[in-house]
Give the backbone structure.
Amino acid sequence: MSYQFKILCFFLLIAILIMAAINLNTGFLSLNINDFWGNALNSQIAEIRVNRVLVMLLAGISIPTSGFLMQEYFQNPLAGPDILGITSVASLSVAFYIFFSHDILLPEFLQNSFLSLSAIAGSLLLMLVLLSISKRFQDKSYLVIFGFLVSAFAGAIVSLLQFYAENQSLKNYILWSFGANNMVSRNQIYVLSVLIAAGLWICFNTIKPLIGNSLGTSYAQSLGVNLNRLKIGIIVASSLLSASVTAFLGPILFIGIIVPHFCRLIYNPSRLWQQWILNMFLGMLMMLLFSVIAEKTQIPLNVISSVFGIPVILVMLLKQNKV
């Protein structure tokens, strides 16, 4: 690794630590260091804030990594984690659960667990469909078209469910779709960590083949890159990383598109190993920043990411058009 890259990572790490400390001190009550240890008066509030920081760090690692894989594989800077329809199907699964389970009496902790499980189950089901469909599509662009059709269909079904839903069910779904980083428990963070670790391990094994794939399909095959295995690895890793965060935090949009874009601006885009590390560091910093803004303004996390991401993507489109 170059000296420039090490310096860049050092400053990003310092910024992450500062932003994490700000997160721990952001809220309705002011806490001191004793509240984070033992059974202090405000220890429960301190635990919620620690969980909030942990889940933002995990989301900041997983969503940009998923976007990075999509953009490098499809060679499209506007590709994101939802390009294959994973996020849309996860939202559809949650919508089915919320709208059709209101008559079932369950404890609150079980309700949250089943809500997350429904999102993960829907995403894994689509992942299996994608794996079977991908064998028939030799051209990568067909997967993008299929993902777009799946997203449009899932969005239409969700709109239909919202139209006929009861008031409380509709409210619950809207609250979930906004993203609630304060509602994730420590046990859910453990589950989320395992899912993200599995996705990162698959990502680690796809970086080297991606480097060969970026030089061209024919050249990659001459280097011994198994393109079919690479495609499967990209689908599985992106599905695990994006679906797990969607399950516990709701759909967080545009972060998977804009973070890889910023990383390519600040460092050599051809060095994929360094780009992956930068995506994780910058993603954690950005999610912690959005968390502070959400706590200060009481604006939902998904709204903040959209307000920030849409102008950035618009600038990217205008820049590409000029080129």
User: Anything to note?
Assistant: The two ends are 31 Å apart (CA to CA). Residues 43-74 form the longest helix (32 residues). The mean pLDDT is 83. DSSP finds twelve helices and no strands in the chain.
